[in-house]
Specification:
There is one protein chain. The chain is an alpha/beta fold. 31% of the residues lie in helices and 25% in strands. The strands form five sheets. An eight-stranded mixed beta sheet has the order 2-1-3-4-10-9-8-6. It binds xanthosine-5'-monophosphate. The site of xanthosine-5'-monophosphate has 12 residues, from loops.
Length: 535
């Protein structure tokens, strides 16, 4: 299959470049800057990402451009553009002031294929401290902004283009057009990477990979493991056995509802209610990391006990997705994110790992889920932490506290699903680009608050009590904190600006209906410095 290689020089937006290329129905791989796959004939183009470094830094990441220049088309973005210039006799200098934010392409070469379809003064997004002050001899300037003479340049000798701005970010209004011009028109992508083609090829690959072997998969109720299960089920049917462990700290009715969904999807699922074990092992434990350790250990124990009953299993399938595996570089060049999804199955079972979603971004997983006909509420489900409500109850955990939190959270989550908002313009575009199914009518779409949010949940502040009054009675009970954040990857997150009338309704309902709660707060902290979960 054709692919674009994205060389990662450590920019925060490298993954975004990958997602944009995939949105063009083109397969791409993000690899560390020094890992260009030489000799791979399926590579049709290379994109060099930005970087936190200046090309003049002694530690700056450098690459031998002759590996691909002159052989396949190349696009340098930001540092990538500066590096191509620097490595070919151009000049890169510290800019008078760091340029950050919107700019407009006041001049551009409309005849250059990179700018096909561009309108005058197209808005682009800049973020750079260095600037290119001279381009290599065999290059020509193809775009400028008010402050940046070499906003884009191209080689006259080789298929090489370079842009100082970031076409991958949303604020570069014609950024996707530029990437399309490069990927499709210049590199010749056939645009045949789609959810449908992914399902067809993956089902065939899975059949070839596992043959008649039995496969075990741990379900969590989340979108990744669910989509992986349905995909495997399509490939190997009853040879797949799924195990879904209830640790007792799932959302209200979640175990029951999700089991029902899985059964409707025709999955062969073993549901294990191990809540008593978890509650007893967690009794009196207040430290968040200790809670995580106990839950992790118990989970592996319960899962293993079930897995070992499936005697002839050869494979362990997991819903690992691409961002879990990308080796992103930090400025010291060390890998800062490694594969975190591997469970702890006993070695004596000799299981091989099968990860059918390992090339997909989250939004692609959702598209594949839709392609497989899965229900929308499973596909759009928010991420939920493995330890569940245990890290949303401050202090020790008891079944009663879990009950209080489940009831409050249920009101909140149903409220988010029921509350509809109308969006237009950029906001609507962003929601549609994330794959949320909504029909555009008169320039507007209607979506639920839930679908606009990355993740929402309720936290029981069970170590705190406050006074309230209900009827003629004084109350002395716990507050809950509502949390809702917007994010693309959970690495950073902003608190969501929920409408006041929604908050008023939810707060009222929780206090009136949930015994044990007499106060509702809304968490207005972003990440960093706060985290999404309270524990
Ligand atoms: P934080 O709280 O670190 O969370 O901002 C980032 C994302 O990770 C989820 N999360 C967890 N997921 N086990 C998990 O499987 C955990 O222990 C855990 N802690 C946090 C969190 O819900 C958010 O999506």
């Amino acid at each position: 299959m054709q692919k674009i290689i994205i060389l990662d020089f450590g920019s925060q937006t490298t993954q975004l470049i990958g997602r944009r290329v995939r949105e063009l129905d083109t397969f791409c791989e993000i690899v560390p800057y020094n890992k260009f796959p030489q000799g791979d004939d399926s590579v049709i183009g290379v994109i060099l990402s930005g970087s936190p470094y200046s090309v003049h830094d002694p530690e700056a990441f450098k690459v031998d451009l002759s590996q691909f220049v002159g052989r396949i088309p190349v696009l340098g973005i930001c540092y990538g553009a500066q590096f191509i210039s620097y490595a070919n006799g151009g000049k890169v200098e510290k800019a008078d002031s760091r340029e950050y934010g919107r700019a407009n392409l006041q001049q551009f070469d409309a005849a250059n294929p990179l700018f096909e379809g561009f309108v005058p003064n197209s808005q682009v997004w800049m973020s750079h401290g260095d600037t290119i002050t001279a381009i290599p001899e065999d290059c020509k300037c193809i775009a400028s902004t008010a402050n940046v003479k070499y906003a884009a340049y191209a080689s006259t000798k080789n298929p090489v283009w370079a842009v100082q701005f970031h076409p991958e970010v949303f604020h570069s209004v014609q950024g996707t057009q530029l990437l399309k011009n490069f990927v499709v028109n210049i590199c010749g992508s056939k645009q045949d990477w789609s959810a449908a083609s992914f399902v067809d090829t993956t089902v065939a690959e899975l059949r070839a990979q596992v043959g008649n072997d039995r496969v075990i998969l741990g379900l969590s109720g989340g979108v990744d493991s669910s989509v992986a299960a349905v995909l495997l089920n399509r490939a190997i049917g009853k040879n797949l056995t799924c195990i879904f462990v209830d640790h007792g700290m799932l959302r209200k009715n979640e175990f029951r509802d999700v089991m029902h969904d899985y059964e409707c999807l025709g999955l062969n699922v073993i549901g294990v209610d191990a809540s008593e074990k978890f509650f007893s092992d967690l009794a009196g434990v207040t430290d968040p990391e200790q809670k995580r350790k106990i839950i992790g250990r118990d989970f592996v124990e319960v899962f293993n006990a079930e897995a070992q009953k499936i005697k002839d299993a050869k494979w362990l399938a997991q819903g690992t997705i691409y961002p879990d595996r990308i080796e992103s570089l930090n400025i010291t060049g060390k890998v800062i994110k490694s594969h975190h999804n591997v469970g702890g199955l006993p070695k004596e079972m000799h299981l091989s790992l099968c990860e059918p979603l390992k090339w997909l971004f989250k939004d692609e997983v959702r598209r594949v889920g839709r392609q497989l006909g899965m229900p929308e509420h499973l596909i759009t489900r928010h991420p939920f932490p493995g330890p569940g409500l245990a890290v949303r109850i401050l202090g020790d955990i008891t079944p009663e506290k879990v009950r209080i939190l489940q009831d409050a959270d249920d009101i909140y989550i149903h409220g988010l699903r029921d509350y509809k908002v109308k969006l237009s313009g950029e906001e609507a575009r962003r929601v549609l680009a994330a794959g949320v199914p909504a029909d555009m009518k008169d320039g507007e779409i209607e979506v639920s608050l839930y679908d606009q949010i990355w993740q929402a949940g309720t936290v029981l502040l069970s170590t705190v009590r406050s006074v309230g009054v209900m009827g003629d009675e004084r109350t002395y009970e716990h507050p809950v904190a509502l949390r809702a954040v917007t994010s693309t990857d959970a690495m950073t997150a902003d608190w969501a600006h929920l409408p006041y009338d929604f908050m008023a309704k939810v707060s009222n309902e929780i206090i009136n209906k949930v015994r044990g709660v007499n106060r509702v707060c809304y968490d207005i902290s972003s990440k960093p410095p706060s985290t999404i979960e309270w524990e």
